[in-house]
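Tokens for chain A. Residues wanted.
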């Protein structure tokens, strides 16, 4: 059972990595023809690219496209000024949690 989970995780990680490379190599924007070529390449690797598979792959790419263009700012301090750290305590001394803590 554990081997199956490991294979599935590896397969998912590989797909996410392929999507990341596609998004970055196209600078977060692509044509329908580029999309069709990518779907064909993903299918050739053994992923099921039926209607549902294509829809989910498209969702992954669209989410990646959004974060590619609107994700973490290049100048982190300018966008994080409005963030107010929370004080949290999990049975020990209270600690401040910042965005940087979460991202690391």
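Reply:
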């Amino acid at each position: 059972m554990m081997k199956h989970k490991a294979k599935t995780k590896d397969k998912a990680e590989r797909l996410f990595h392929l999507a990341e490379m596609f998004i970055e190599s196209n600078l977060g924007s692509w044509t329908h023809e580029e999309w069709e070529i990518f779907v064909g390449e993903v299918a050739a690797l053994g992923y099921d690219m039926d209607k549902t598979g294509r829809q989910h792959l498209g969702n992954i790419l669209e989410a990646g496209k959004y974060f590619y263009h609107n994700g973490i700012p290049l100048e982190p301090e300018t966008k994080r000024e409005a963030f107010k750290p929370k004080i949290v305590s999990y049975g020990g001394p209270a600690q401040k949690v910042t965005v940087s803590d979460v991202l690391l």
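The chain is about 65% helix and 5% strand. The radius of gyration is 19 Å.
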